[in-house]
């Protein structure tokens, strides 16, 4: 369960978000919508611990009752998926996946996990190919599985579907939802596309312009 | 780079850069005013200046320095602008472009030796036309190299500098949106050379001003090239000073220091004069640019520049081709265009010496360049993270950082004088003649080029990849190497190749820091260039050119193929030993 209490965000003297609170249960997706520049992405940065100094934020965030906002990024175990899939171009698909699997797992199991992921992606033959040979939709799916393989405690999605062409979007959304339920972690999705929100079959919040 | 203490690192590096510069300057300035404790001189006076100005040789040398040091950059700039205007974005020109970096990599001493083989009275050019045209059956009594006017030195400088300027210009063109401009002007009916003259060159010049200044400073102060192919009685000022610095009469050293200070003033004055001339020139041509004429007589200036530039490039290539021919020649009598007999004997005979020279050369070049790459990465990381850079990045305006100023100083200062000033420090530290001292001095000249080559790609790197890697696992140093540096491989390889070739070419730093105890291919080739043993000098110059060209070629060839090779190797290992691999292929 990811909980945010009384979150407020301001840039200089301008308040962007005020007093936002929500809970997300494990395996569920909360979608946050709103026009660009409203501070949606900054909310994600706040939760991942990478908020730039120019913005000031107040409020608390808890993961399963444990305070999140006081921890540095590297201790948060956060998964973040953005528009760019950010697959490392100089590593093969399986190397990209292996890169994310925690090192305390023994080598045999790491290999096994990566192979399983490839099966789920429907591309077991692509293990040794480079990311650039995959289509945009395939890259997005590999990126999601790579993030999940790092065993994050919660997941943040920053418009991960907006760069895909419409035909692919539905397919990738479905895949993402299935994998999130399978991983059973709370997920926050930020988007400006209402279809993304409905496809995630969860609650959604709409942020408006502050007067 | 998960680096702590950014501020601290930044100031430490800045101090380490500034320290040798300051010592070198002080070590030149004080002796110029008679203050030189190692020789028991500790009262300030103007005596060194008086004796400098009383030397007739000083004025003759100064004149030669001004002729060659101003003439060569003007010609190199003229030819390179012409070649660029003529060939830019044309298919055949791409081939010339790919040839540029190997030429750049070749140490100038090797080119100068090749030119000696080409142009001297007994050189290949005269052989080619003898005896059928010239009637010579022995070398004529001409002074075609080391001529008293410095013409052959200017020619050698042009061959070295033109490819460099062309290379810099091609890089600068990327920021000009030139192809749109060319199309727009051609649609208006402007001829190619005219539109370059009126529109593109005026935009290009401000971007390449600093490289031009480097070329001018180099031409005014070069020692090794002038020793090989420059005039010798009198010689250029840098060479004259070099002789005075090494004179057994130690008083001459003080006079030489005064001369070195004077040479710095000359650089400043020439650069100032150059800028002034450029201002006047651009004011004078301003009305002509907008007079609406679609072609003009001045186009011929560019047209002739193309022909002369191509001829210079061609002579450069022939000069280089003569190096292996000489090193393999057994008998090569005068009017023959090619050796009558070939042999490996020259190389065999020289092998022990060549191996020693090569191992010294490679040891120095590899250590200096690796160190330079490491320091450049540290500098760039502090630069990237300094508030200065991040606040400027958003506004799109990049004010030069402290590093950007410091890094140019060693390249712009004359090596002669400056390095002798540093030598005093080495003596105090008891490091004179030490290999570490040679590497340190090389580092000072290698670092600027490595830093400048890496700067663009390093700052343009998509930092998101590294952040993503750090979210996926927490081994930040490992991620820095495996993700960021691995993705910057092409830039790192190129920077390494450039640094390596700069190190190989160094003459004075090796000589002064090493006090002659360590010879490299370059110092030995320069020392023997005049010896007349063309077969041995040819082998040395050939090796001297071989290593940088090979490293450059590898730097271009390997990075794009690296990942493919690595994956192929992994797959073939798995095939050989499938069982073992299941457990440790991670």
Automatic annotation (TrEMBL), chain A:
Show the coiled coil region(s). none
Q: Which GO terms describe its molecular function?
A: ATP binding; ATP hydrolysis activity
In what residue span(s) does the ABC transporter domain sit?
2-210
This chain's protein is named: ATP-binding cassette domain-containing protein
Organism taxonomic ancestry:
Bacteria, Pseudomonadati, Pseudomonadota, Gammaproteobacteria, Oceanospirillales
PANTHER family the UniProt entry points to = SPERMIDINE/PUTRESCINE IMPORT ATP-BINDING PROTEIN POTA, SPERMIDINE_PUTRESCINE IMPORT ATP-BINDING PROTEIN POTA
**One Pfam family matching this protein:** ABC_tran
Recorded source organism is Marinomonas transparens
Record key words, sorted: ATP-binding, Nucleotide-binding, Transport
Automatic annotation (TrEMBL), chain B:
Q: Which terms does the UniProt entry file under GO BP? A: transmembrane transport
Q: Does the keyword Phosphoprotein apply?
A: no
Q: Read off the PANTHER family from this record.
A: INNER MEMBRANE ABC TRANSPORTER PERMEASE PROTEIN YNJC, MOLYBDENUM TRANSPORT SYSTEM PERMEASE PROTEIN MODB
Q: What is this protein called?
A: ABC transporter permease subunit
What organism is recorded for this protein?
Marinomonas transparens
Q: Show the stretches that span the lipid bilayer.
A: 12-36, 66-88, 109-129, 149-173, 207-229, 254-281, 301-326, 362-384, 405-429, 435-454, 487-508, 541-558
Q: Which family does it belong to?
A: Belongs to the binding-protein-dependent transport system permease family.
CDD domains reported in the protein's UniProt record: TM_PBP2
- Write out the annotated subcellular location: Cell membrane
Top-level taxon in the UniProt lineage: Bacteria
UniProt keyword Transmembrane helix, yes or no: yes
- Chief localization: membrane
Its cellular-component GO annotations read:
plasma membrane
Question: Taking every annotated instance into account, which residue ranges of this chain make up the domain ABC transmembrane type-1?
Answer: 58-273, 358-555
